[in-house]
Amino acid sequence: MSKVITGRMTHHHEGELVVFHIGMQINRWWRPDLWMPTFFAMPPMLRELSMDPDSGMLGYHLLFGAGGPYVVQYWSSVDKLYAYASSPSQEHRPAWTRFNKMARKAPGAVGIWHETFLVDRAESVYVSTKPMGLPKATEMVVVGKRQDRAQARFAEGRTLAGQSGPHGTSRAVPESTYSPR
C-alpha cells in the first residue's frame, strides 16, 4: 500500500510526454456476457507494458467514470504507443480483433474510446497524497520556492514537444498520424 507523502510535491520529466486516455462504456449493464470480455482485456495489457521497461509506458492510473472504467496512461513517446497498439505479437492487437468481432455480433453493447495528447507543457501539484498521476509515472519532487505558484511550475514544465510547438498548449494527435486499426 502506498504511503501518503506529506508536503507539496510536483513532477519532473525531461523528454517527450504523451498522455493517453482509454476506456470502455458499458451500454448494456444487464449483459455482462457482452462487456466482461472487454473489461478483462485491459489488465493483461497493463501488466505486459508495466513489466517491459522499454515499452514506453511510464505509468498509469485506473479510474471509474459514469459509463465505465478508463485508464490514464503516461508514455515516453507517441511512436512507442502506436508501435504497441499495432504489434500483432503483444496483447493489444488480438484484444482489439476480439472486440471488433464482438461489436459486430452485438452492436452498441459496449463502446471503446481513447484520446491521445502530445503534451507541450505540464504542471502539477499534489499536497499530502499517495503517489499518483504524473509524479508517480515520472519523478516526484518537492515544490521548491521558485515553483511555489502554478504559473511558475507551468513555465518550467516544457517537454520536448513544447520546444517546437506553441507555448502552453496540448495538442491532440490526429488519428491520421498513426496506423489504421
What brief labels describe this structure?
181 residues; alpha+beta; Alpha-Beta Plaits; five-stranded antiparallel beta sheet; three-stranded antiparallel beta sheet; 6 helices; 8 strands; 29% strand; elongated
Give a short overview:
The protein is α+β, with helices and mostly antiparallel strands and 181 residues long. It is 29% helix and 29% strand.
Task: Characterise this structure.
It is a single chain. The protein is of the alpha+beta class. It has two domains: 5-13 and 123-172, no CATH class; 18-118, Alpha-Beta Plaits (2-Layer Sandwich), CATH 3.30.70. The protein contains six helices and eight strands. It has helices at 32-39, 42-51, 78-86, 92-105, 133-137, 150-156; strands at residues 5-12, 18-26, 57-64, 69-75, 110-119, 126-129, 139-142, 170-172. A five-stranded antiparallel beta sheet has the order 3-4-2-5-8. The protein has a three-stranded antiparallel beta sheet with strand order 6-1-7. β3 and β4 (69-75) form a beta hairpin. The longest helix is centred in the middle third of the chain and has 14 residues, at 92-105. The radius of gyration is 18 Å and the shape is elongated. It starts with a strand and ends in a 9-residue tail after the last strand. Mean pLDDT is 86; it is low at 165-181.
